[in-house]
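Q: Could you fold this chain for me?
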Amino acid sequence: MISSGALRPGDKLGTERELAATLSVSRSTLRQVLAVLAQSGVVRRVPGRAGGTFVAHSKVDRDLSVIVGLPEYLRRQGFLAGTQVLSATMTGADDLTATHLDLPSGSLVLDIVRIRLADGVPISLERVRLPADLVPGLLELPLGGSIYDLLDRHYGMKPQDVIEHLEVVEASPDEAALLGIADRAPLLAITRTSRTADGVAFEFSNDLFRADRTCVTFRTKAERAEIVGRAAAERAPRAPSAQVSGELDQGNRLDLGNRNAPAVRAEGGLRAFSASGRRGARR
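A: Sure. Below is the predicted structure, expressed as structure tokens.
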């Protein structure tokens, strides 16, 4: 029924009794099959009187080894990309933003907050900060597509050296409401700093991806590298590369749609919508 397209993402399956009768299997066998389907992400099971078993939406594969805008990721995977701009303002950089962008604290930055949609469904909540003096007039441009494309086309800037940190966090009530998920549902939080080939920091971003709609791909070379502390790594000279914090084997994919997976709070400042930054979440 699912593979044939008779049931679409979001459709509710029948009751166990109905499904067992339709498929001519015992209810115990059906429960085992549904458990396997839920574990693999084909269906999702919602407890409670109004719950049931539903066909799951396809997951977006976020490949951290490729530097392209999210709309391009979505199009390559057959999704219809969409964007809802919540806010786009010019403000003073807080200490964390200033550090990542190599700016004095309080320097003017553009602060853009958007919801990304895949086939009309919220997939991520993102916040990007850019040095205002590097991108004059950016706020007057259409912000519904890829900011990387705008930066390349209008300012001649491309990301060459990108450092991304990935962790699992719990959705706050505001984040949950914006993404259409349950309070404290798991999110994949990606914090990113991008530099040009000349080493100029031009982007500090925080992306919150729905864990039930996203998997992450890491591509690494089979070479041993010295493991250093995070502070030391960030002080080291940067060579053009795409770096990801984590310890996954070559070619592994990280899929955290399972609600039973442990969710942890992000360390201070890494959340896109921390106490000091949630005002911007209305962009």
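A (continued): Helices lie at 16-23, 27-39, 70-76, 95-100, 147-155, 173-179, 230-235.
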